[in-house]
Amino acid sequence: GQVAAEGFTNGKWIEGQxxxxxxxxxxxWVPIGHxxxxxxxxxxxxxxxxxxxxxxxxxxxxxxVMREAAHNMMEETxxxxxxxxxxxxWE
Length: 91
Description:
The protein is of the alpha+beta class. The protein has one helix spanning about 45-90; strands spanning about 1-5, 10-15, 15-20, 25-30, 35-40. About 55% of the residues lie in helices and about 30% in strands. A hairpin with a 2-residue loop joins strand 3 and strand 4. The model has no long low-confidence stretch (mean pLDDT about 85).
């Protein structure tokens, strides 16, 4: 597995083992004696996380849509005012 110092500096690969433990698995970095365990999330948790991500994406998209709409309104106002001042010069 790969290990590194804080801030992911001095990254290097060291010997490790992938271990299956019942419904879980773990990875052990042999030289440093460190082991982490992983499990599969429940289907309810997976769906909840997917929904939350979609909601976050929608919120970000709504901000982008509102920003673009405001920009377009400002631009339209500029051209209307410019057109009005131009027409006023001919009268």
